[in-house]
Amino acid sequence: METQNTYPLLKESLDFTARVINYSEILEQEKKKTIALKLMHSGIKINSYLFEAKTAIRIDDINLKLQKAKISTEEALYWLKQCVKSNYLPNDSNVFDMGIKLSENISKSIKP
Question: Dihedral of CA 100/46/13/55: which sign?
């Protein structure tokens, strides 16, 4: 089988994760370390799973990693929403749009 080219997804996820990490740093400075770690961890997992999907050979392995990347994206969005609701972070619609688009693009990449 052919290795799936996930480079565009990987670049898109790196952009999203960079924003997530910036927010994690803000949370740490505000002494919100627990949620900062949750947010950072979910953001980093996205990239790990997409890289694993890029290097996987079997379609089942590719799809599994892509599904995990999608779940991690949704988890990062969840923690961002919680931070906004708790007034820990400002509501940045751009980062939410980036995450939603990334999640949609990952879904489109999953092969039946």
Answer: negative
